[in-house]
Write a structure and sequence with these properties.
Elements: E1 10-15, E2 22-31, E3 34-44, E4 49-50, E5 55-56, H1 61-87, H2 93-103, H3 117-126, H4 142-162, H5 173-185, H6 190-209, H7 236-243, H8 250-265, H9 269-273, E6 280-283, E7 286-292, E8 299-303, H10 306-311, H11 322-335, E9 341-348, E10 353-360, H12 368-378, H13 384-391, H14 396-402, H15 410-430
Antiparallel strand pairs: 1-2, 2-3, 4-5, 6-7, 7-8, 9-10
Helix pairs in contact: 1-2, 3-4, 3-6, 5-6, 8-11, 8-12
Length: about 450
């Protein structure tokens, strides 16, 4: 006989405002450390709310009806939670918001065919573990899923501002112009605008494969690859300045070590911070760092260089969060006088967007620039395919754009190669043994 295990999750309703029309929040406690709170979309006058039952006072027909809705919603969410846990679905705030909206028919179930843009974005998110990725494997990366979640929220804000509900067939050139103008007003840069449009097109193509009608202009809706005009990296001289700077604060000395290591291994911030002694391997007489990149699950092998050997002589720097790394990187570079006025994007706390301007270089440095520093400084010194095998780039075109190069930059390398080849040939000609006639 099977034992039925009941879900220990609980749901309670609460108000967080004393306004006349206070929003009613649903609080879902799944387990220790997973406590979610989201708006139900319903509201009530606090005078009609019972703190004891955490439900409306049943003093009139309207409140009785509201209580019935909230109780029914509670049962629906708990049932959805059981199904989600059985299927291994991730339970988070995004999931809770979606299930609430689904209950009140604000969205359609992703399993059903829908012509709404937001429903089809949700379909992509829900089916992310089963979708093909750019590397030919199965399952979208966490960063791609987060990008689609961000797109979902952005479209919801756009629809609210325009007082409309977008359908898949509405995605045409007129939409692109309107959406681009909206994003520009929200202080998004051109690169982000184009990426969002490209993601929207991907959603539309996915919907089309499920029988949803699309605009005849959809093929012309494109996300243009923006040339990376503001390449930020540390020069070899600036790295040397940092190496020679002493930091009295332990936190900055630790970040200095992470910075130097980052310029040697060429990894994204989170992959860099996950490195420890377990990543060091010895194979065929070589000392290596081996890791699996979070984005794309690509396996990377990096041989120890003499500088890396010296840096890690006494072990890896202690682990910190990516937020602290980004914060202290600026202090480390500032104290090392990495202050060349540089054009680039800096986060604006007021607009919550990156703003283009000219700033001291240390104000712009982030963890991702360490990866670009590695790629840029080793370009031309190491064969490009070898650099790409470490950074994780798949296409050479993408790699060149990443470091601000084009195919024309090869001309200098080719010229240098021909010059060296010519020198070798001339040297060999001069060293040829000339036979002479025997005298006598």
């Amino acid at each position: 006989m099977f034992k039925i295990i009941k879900n220990m999750a609980t749901i309670k309703y609460q108000l967080q405002s004393k306004a006349e029309n206070a929003p009613i929040y649903l609080r879902l406690s799944v387990k220790r450390g997973l406590d979610l709170r989201r708006k139900t979309g319903l509201s009530i006058n606090p005078k009609d709310w019972s703190d004891k039952t955490r439900l409306p006072k049943e003093n009139n027909p309207t409140n009785k009806n509201l209580t019935s809705k909230l109780r029914s919603l509670k049962n629906s969410i708990l049932n959805d939670l059981n199904n989600a846990e059985s299927n291994g679905t991730e339970i988070n705030g995004y999931w809770l918001s979606y299930r609430i909206d689904l209950y009140f028919d604000r969205v359609q179930e992703t399993g059903a065919t829908s012509n709404l843009l937001t429903d089809n974005i949700q379909r992509v998110i829900t089916n992310a573990p089963l979708r093909k990725n750019s590397r030919g494997g199965i399952g979208l990366s966490k960063s791609r899923v987060n990008a689609y979640k961000g797109l979902y929220e952005l479209i919801k804000r756009y629809e609210k501002a325009k007082r409309l509900k977008l359908k898949i067939k509405d995605i045409d050139l007129k939409f692109v112009n309107s959406f681009s103008a909206y994003m520009q007003k929200q202080k998004y840069n051109n690169g982000n605008i184009q990426k969002k449009i490209a993601d929207i097109k991907t959603v539309c193509i996915d919907a089309q494969s499920n029988g949803v009608e699309t605009s005849v202009q959809l093929p012309k809706v494109t996300g243009i690859r923006i040339k990376n005009d503001y390449i930020l990296y540390l020069t070899e001289q600036e790295i040397e300045q940092i190496e020679q700077t002493d930091y009295t604060r332990q936190a900055l000395a630790n970040v200095k070590k992470w910075l130097l290591l980052g310029t040697m291994v060429g990894q994204r911030g989170n992959d860099l911070l996950n490195l420890n002694e377990d990543n060091i391997k010895h194979r065929n007489g070589l000392k290596l760092i081996e890791l699996t990149q979070q984005k794309g699950n690509k396996e990377v092998v990096i041989p120890f260089s003499p500088k890396m050997e010296t840096l890690l002589k006494y072990g890896f720097p202690y682990k910190i969060s990516i937020q602290k790394l980004n914060k202290h990187l600026k202090d480390v570079c500032r104290l090392a006088e990495v202050n060349t006025i540089t054009k680039g994007y800096k986060y604006n706390k007021e607009t919550k967007r990156r703003t283009l301007g000219e700033y001291p270089k240390y104000e712009l440095i982030t963890s991702h620039d360490l990866r670009r520093t590695f790629a840029t400084n080793y370009y031309t010194k190491m064969p490009t395919p070898l650099i790409m095998s470490i950074t994780g780039h798949v296409k050479e075109e993408t790699f060149l754009n990443y470091i601000g190069k084009t195919s024309h930059d090869y001309t200098q390398q080719i010229a240098e190669y021909f010059y060296k080849l010519s020198a070798v040939v001339n040297n060999e000609t001069q060293l040829k043994i000339v036979k002479t006639k025997k005298i006598g």
